[in-house]
């Protein structure tokens, strides 16, 4: 039986370059990751900026885990702008990891670790809990089924520290999209907020976890996370405002918080 590390079991992506951009593809029709050459650490796609919305709820995470590397957009942004955070990335496709230099992903250091492996298994077995878990593990066929099962979402919930948060990128056109949302609600005691990516429309970012469950309104103005410069924080402004509006609507419509489920 082959292991997740066997390169022959994984589709080899390709890189498309223009004068100003670099993109990671599994097929010419779908962009997996996108980088502006002049700003390699910037978040060029709106959904990635929306995933950084966890900062409204957890502005100083000590431990960030990511399932799916792609071109490393989120890993690079967090590594540069959240200097107090440790970042662990798990990517199942070794061919994707092999392209990290092309996308200017920094080398592993005391704060950044990128490993090859099965992300669902890693979340289940990780000995330490996370403050933030980012799931963006699409491959050539779309969303892997293993990253959308009830067990996976249960494991995600169990992996978070008190006040922790999950952010997951979902394709709204997936035939089981509503089922995936229902599974998330079951795993996170209904503390689930879906926010549509207004730039592309086909995707949404779902935030879930105890850090979301407070019925308090988010402040209208939030200071940048510790160590993040103003320009980086300002680059997130549109998506954070969109998320703040969605959270307020969700907060007002949500019934009183129920007691956690007991086994």
TrEMBL record:
* GO BP term (any one): polyamine biosynthetic process
- Does the keyword Transferase feature in the UniProt annotation? yes
Task: Alphabetically list the UniProt keywords.
Answer: Polyamine biosynthesis, Transferase
Q: Where is the active site?
A: 136
GO molecular function, a single term = transferase activity
Query: Any idea where the PABS domain is?
Result: 1-222
Question: Which protein are we looking at?
Answer: Spermidine synthase
Q: What is the lineage of its organism?
A: Bacteria, Pseudomonadati, Pseudomonadota, Betaproteobacteria, Burkholderiales
